[in-house]
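Journal club prep — side note

Before the paper discussion, L.F. wants everyone to see what a predicted structure for a comparable chain looks like in token form. Sequence:
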Amino acid sequence: MLILGGMFMINTSCSDDDEKDTMAPGQISNVRFVPNYGGGYFLYDIPEDPDFLYVRADYTVDSGEKVSKTSSTYNDTLFVEGFGQVKEYEVKLYSVDRNENVSAPVVQVITPLEANTNTVAATLTVRPGFSALIAEWTNELQQTVDVYVRLSDGETVAEKVLSSNSKDGFFLVENLQNKDYTVSTYVKDQYGNISSVQDCGILRPLEDAPLNKSLWAFLPNQQLYGNRWNYDSDPNPDNQQPYDEYMGAFTKDSLRNAPSAAYEGRIEKFWDNITYQLNPENYNIFNTGEWGYPYSYFIDMGRTVKGSRVRYWQRLSDKYGNENVQTFQLYISDDDDPTDGVTDWELVGTYKIVKPADSYEADQEAIAGHEFILYPKETKYTKPFRYLRFKALNGFTERMVSVGSEITLYGLEVND
């Protein structure tokens, strides 16, 4: 009997441990609300219950949709969003414990500021781009919004949309002609809130096109320096250098080319209209060898042009890594007498390849090439120029070897 009794006591104890807690946690207290655009946040004191986990807010937005938002675990702050008007809304706040027991609600009546769609729309601007329109806006709350750009050429109406939660938004409406478009915009969110439509007037994209690369040629150091080059400095052309008084510029960070060929790469592959391909690999790249950063390549465009955009392709086999270039600069020169060397270089801009967070988007961008507007803050062409300097500042890694697949410049031919 003693043994059986002991076994009975043990079994009873285990059964008690397995019973689920059904007691609701205490309510939050000392609730305060801080309004913001289209919502705001609650501050509160959490209950002393040891199994308290989080707070849940239930409310209804203008579309009739019922919304629930939860705080982080053990947090004393809870954000709400999606309200479309400056008016009173009822929000019920519940404490929830580890067993999903829910307290009685703490009912709050709040008045948010105007909808975030309106504040984003107020910052939204559209300006002409190159064969495109450029939409820009600010989204301080970084809530997801859909930005709509509607345009009409008098015959057809089209609407483009971009969903974004970036603080500084940027949207290209591409593949447009050099003609007038009547443009308007509006902003919508996931809760059905829509801003008023803004009239942006009549805008005309600037014309540009990919520049023909058949006349491009590598500008070797000898031509870069012209009659300042000392051909007697060494029998091997690869070891020659300019006269002593010009040696100060003959550095990796100034007027000097990286090796034109190394391993499987040659600089002429940088503009041969063939991008790096996989399956099978075509190894269509330039390769600096163990040269390091920074480095430059100088290119003779073969005639005078004006630039607008640039597109750059990585080596796809190790995109966004290994030996690929991450940041580069472009310089131009309109030197009309290269006999004493090509001088008067002007910096156009610095451009950095940023890997998109979405892996599919990152892959597609690498395949299509990374496009940069030469002057991103204003729509303008470069001055007329003939000579281009590509200067790589750093790669994605600390490797000394650097590679790239293809570069295309957009702009206009300059007819003398």
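L.F.'s comment for the group: Residues 116-206 form a domain with the Immunoglobulin-like fold (CATH 2.60.40.10). Keep this in mind when we get to the figures.
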